[in-house]
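Example 3.2
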Amino acid sequence: MKNIIATILIFTSFIFYAQVGKTDKIPKANRKYVAWISPSKATHLYGLMFNFWYKDKEDSTVTFPKIYGAEINLNLIGIIGPFFSILATFEVAQQQNAVEESIDSLNISKFKKVNGLELAIINMEPTIINGLDINLSGSQESVTNGVTISIAMNRHYITNGLTIGLSNYDRKCSGIQIGLINSTAKLKGMQFGLWNINQKRSLPFINWCFKQ
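Structure, written as tokens:
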């Protein structure tokens, strides 16, 4: 565990020094360095963020931070997540005709942004994750660019890269889904699982579509 923490701190220190020259226009009160705790009023974190509770996305006053480094999300709601994963899997499996929910209306600019590493019991906040996303329970309401691995379920707005979980549902996926049940309204890539659903067809084991 000490080696893991040391690796994260070394990794985030490189990002910190790379970003120092870009913070001039950000008020000092909104910038935090090395390590910090969320929820907070910090808008930019250069280092390691510990998150113990999610912010209500329906609250228009909520400002999500930009994290350059790593976030460790310890939201305890995620502990019960795996017990509901089977129900979530069946729910996704029933979406034979996946209806594309509008993603054009999403205000992605207000999402929390993690450039680096996201480690979570469960991530329930709208987040843009550029890098590696690892979750004990699941990842929801995010835009991912990289690799997402969850024991239970992933439910994303947009995925660019690789998504692995017991069940995966992405409104838009450019890449690969691997899971027991995979579903997406718009696929450009491959699906590998017991049952795979996309805008073209539903198939067991392997499915594909290369035009969104």
